[in-house]
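S.,

Sequence below, as promised.
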Amino acid sequence: MYLATCVASDLPREIIFPMTLRALCDPSAARAADIDQRLRERLAVSLDYMAGFLASDDWNRSLVMPQALADLKAGPVLPWVFGFYAMAVQHASRAELDLARQDFDELIAIITTPSSKNIIALAAPALSDAHQAVAQALFDTDSTRRFQPQAPSVPEFEVCSSEVEAAFALISNSDPDLAAEMKVLMGLILLAVPEGSDRSQGFNGASTFFLWRATLLNARCQRGIIETADLLIHEASHQLLFGLVLGGALSENDPTERYTSPLRADLRPIDGIFHAAFVATRVHLAMTRMRASDNIPPELLPALNHSATTSAEAALAALELLEKKLSPTPAGKEIFDAMVDYWQAAKFSVA
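The prediction came back faster than expected:
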């Protein structure tokens, strides 16, 4: 699922380019770490400004800011730091300054919180009420429908987490470079289930730039190891695309325009189609690399080949639409060209 990607900031944005366009599709833990570093450095600038903006006679964090900013720049932090920042900006923009200060204090405390388990349920006691509220708010971005995933049952959590761990093990064994990149891009996996039985509440996975390095998965779906690996690579690729443009836009198209997506039943804006093309391309690349490793058990090859084939079909369909309709930003054009370059090299045609 593609969700909103803008981050409140007056800082300039630029794409992070590797040596060649085609390498944009290839896995790189170093590139992912560089993106994360840049995002944390930008967040540090914004937090320093916000601390001054929110200061009052009875709320001042000038004494704790130097250490907090140093810790933020020093290494990866939990996605909740970005989440509470997004909520603080939202509350401040509404002149709800006391709520913004509460969000700010939460994120300062989280900066120094060590990461424990990276697969957790969207439920207490794994998460506080405040953390659950942040997740609900930041994943519920579609004004046309309510999206409020709920806590999974214990059996649902156990089955899904086991599938996720098995899929990661398979990826690590067959493509260590991809696994290393995904470890950077997926610092937290939240397991949840749909709110109700209505089809509009259904989901497979979801990612949002507002919770950088966090991914939401539906724990009620029993997928199998290859389908789970496909989903994890899919969501990690959303995160990579968010990061490549540092939360910026991929297109200059009218955001109210809607098009048929190869990966969604509902009509999507052009940036959503762009995300579909990118993640499908990356899943195809990943499955091709994994198959070439000769470390895939024979009984899993039919599912792997099916994933590669369906991803190719989705990517090429999305690219065909983009070629006709996309008005790209400079960053969007570079990434679009990289995808075309990949498929031409893979001996597929792009109409």
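Confidence is low (pLDDT under 50) at residues 1-14.

Coffee later?
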